[in-house]
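Feature request, filed as a ticket because there's no other form

It would be nice if the structure record came with a short human-readable summary line next to the tokens. Right now we just get the raw output. Example of a typical job, pasted below so the devs can see what we mean:
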Amino acid sequence: MEAKVNREDPAADYSAREAWRLFGIMSEFVEATERLEPLRPAVSIFGSARLAPEHKYFKLTEEIARKLSDAGFSVISGGGPGVMEAANRGAFEGKSAAVGLNIELPREQHGNNFQDVALYFRHFFARKYMFVKFACAYVVMPGGFGTLDELSEALTLIQTGKASKMPIILVGREFWSGLIAWMQDQLVGNGLIGPADTDLMQLIDDPDQVVETIFKFYETRGFIPSASERERLMYL
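Raw output as currently delivered:
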């Protein structure tokens, strides 16, 4: 349903459209929550939309996603091409759900064909919230600004206590090592983050070790969020 346009008062028209937009945002949260809640435990995989299927990181992503899926994890990606497609394709071939959180973008984004569950978002922040809310771990492949944004957001939420600690696994040692070294030199060195903050990330390239690391993290506490953790997620 659209708000009636008031052509004589553009400011009032804009205000009305903004108010009605809230219902669209609410609908995205409601639909995503209802469809993703039954799919726990889930792992979110991030990475570049620009990697072709023949790229080594595309193939590595596909292998990791398939192993996670066979181990009982739903795999959540952005639903698009590149690493997102590799993640969905690997999970699609496995035993658990391949989930795509698709976003409308002017370029680069088109849905891949390997999604058991496909959700569509117009609002970036609603989509980003779902990546965090339903993931028990992050696997971060090489990528550009979008990937760095997701990584930075996850680190910030955990560092500030807005989200519970979870495994954040960076895959691609040769790609990520320079960033980690810069963080330790410049961010830790200048007192901008704590010395232990870089320990929130782990560099792992072996697919089996990725799966083992996630299981080991949760072996004493289980994958189901506690009541306090669920409450914390309400205020991301």
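Something like this underneath would help us a lot:
The first strand starts at residue 42 and ends at 46.
The longest helix spans residues 10-36.
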